Amino acid sequence: GNSVTQMEGPVTLSEEAFLTINCTYTATGYPSLFWYVQYPGEGLQLLLKATKADDKGSNKGFEATYRKETTSFHLEKGSVQVSDSAVYFCALSVGGGFKTIFGAGTRLFVKA
Amino acid sequence: EAGVAQSPRYKIIEKRQSVAFWCNPISGHATLYWYQQILGQGPKLLIQFQNNGVVDDSQLPKDRFSAERLKGVDSTLKIQPAKLEDSAVYLCASSLGAGEDTGELFFGEGSRLTVL
User: Mean pLDDT, to the nearest integer, of A59-84?
Assistant: First the structure.
């Protein structure tokens, strides 16, 4: 079946540190891959996406590359800020109906 | 552009009682989703509608949960009778569901249910 596995949190970093949150997936067919973010007190919102192998999604300094050979979509940011503190969800969607499956989420704390 | 609207934001009920949640998607979005998010877990899809038809309800506990989207616009999710393990945030999301759809979901703020 289709599933998403992401690294457990929480992840605690100091401001300006490098961030990596690992995400791997299992899917039948060719999924689209997403990172969603949930800031405190807010709903989930799309951070970035990639729809085919080797595509790189990017937004707000975050990047993730769709790696078909390793079935991965790791999230990276070169220099985190306190305002990046949130829960990050890796997700995939398959099929014409765009059924979306989420990972368990990784909570990030950034200290000033 | 108005976002996805959900109500109520918070609900506390006793076990075996019933509860209903309402969702109004972004105007023009054909696809509507209900997810259950238990504390510390990722959202789990309960049901997906395309207009007023059900696309996927394979993970909906049909003995106690029901959902409808009668006119292909807003939707209601009902739980009757509620169990303690139903305590969660119920998220509604919508997407274009047509030619230009990239798969991006637009979420409401959620309805937090506590069952005592």
Answer: 97
